[in-house]
Amino acid sequence: MKVKELIEQLQQFDPEMETMRHGYEGGVENITLLSMEPVALNVNKAWYYGTHEVVIYKDDEYPGHEIITALIIS
Asked: What's the mean per-residue pLDDT of the chain?
């Protein structure tokens, strides 16, 4: 989802509504951070991992994968 698509969807909600995300093993918690991170696309194939991966070391960490800058919501 692009930021513009997220903004369009968010405009449907009361701007005073709390924003939350799922907890690690259950429950929900408030979103507390937005950050821009380099992300390698389509890296993980296992169902229990997210499809993409944050790039920590830029030098050949994910050869053959497109790396973009993404907004991470946590």
From this structure: 93
